[in-house]
Amino acid sequence: MMYAANAGAGPEIVSSMWALCQLTVFCQLVGWVAERVLDTGLRARFVPLLCGVAGLWAGSWLSGLESVGPVLAGQPILPACAGALAISTLFKLVGLAAASGPRW
């Protein structure tokens, strides 16, 4: 009886996982920088990662999915940084509104 040998991960899977790892680290770094620059005031655990991921989505949506400037794993870097700053600005406004309390 012959058994199928495990061929390991295919090159396509390794390539896509490597791109996903690069984007995750990039989103974490960009989100952390944007959150530190603007100091959103929200002390939740995943706020920097959320800023980075939402910034990557918003930046690529705003740029029309064009490659503007350098590209990392198929995603443009500069619009992602601008998107992360925009999302951090929204979080800053939410933090300011929450800190001031109700107006009545």
Polypeptide structure, described:
Strand 1 and strand 2 form a beta hairpin. The protein is mainly alpha-helical and 104 residues long. The chain contains 3 helices and 2 strands. It is elongated and about 75 Å long. The protein has a domain at 24-36 and 44-98. 25% of the residues are buried. A two-stranded antiparallel ribbon has the order 1-2.
Largest sheet: 2 strands, antiparallel
User: Percent helix among the residues?
Assistant: 55-70%
Strand content: under 5%
Please tell me how large the radius of gyration is: 19 Å
What are the secondary-structure elements, in order, as H or E?
HHEEH
Quick overview:
This protein has helices spanning 11-38, 47-62, 77-100, and strands at residues 71-72, 75-76.
